[in-house]
Amino acid sequence: MKYDKNNIFAKILRKEISCKKIFENEHVLSFYDINPQKKIHALVIPKGEYINLDDFNHKASDQEIVALNKAITIVAGLLNISINKGKGYRALTNLGEYGGQEVPHLHFHLFGGENVGKMVE
Length: 121
Ligand code: 5GP
Hints:
With 121 residues, the protein is of the alpha+beta class. It is built from 4 helices and 5 strands, in the order αβββααβαβ.
């Protein structure tokens, strides 16, 4: 499967579409989900062109992989939902059709600010 340069997150990265930014560094961008499913719902995405987590783990550099992982914890801290600052949260990524992925650019969802409930409904 080829990366679709016209997906919505690619447009956000190119600043063709705006987002409510939470955090950014060389490898990662984080912003609020446009349609929050929980009290706090953030997204953390790599800046590189990766379709999903498997694609990322196959192709990304070690620096990119470390940066994305660390960004999840950084963003959770900024939002005060981390174990250190808050009461915890859920980080998840959907992969492909059966995983329920809608936007074909790797993204982690961070849900928190309240009890986020059962893992799978
Ligand atoms: P997926 O189902 O692919 O795991 O999640 C895609 C997420 O992207 C959804 O939660 C959806 O609300 C969010 N989303 C879709 N379009 C936009 C957008 O234009 N801006 C932002 N901030 N989030 C978006």
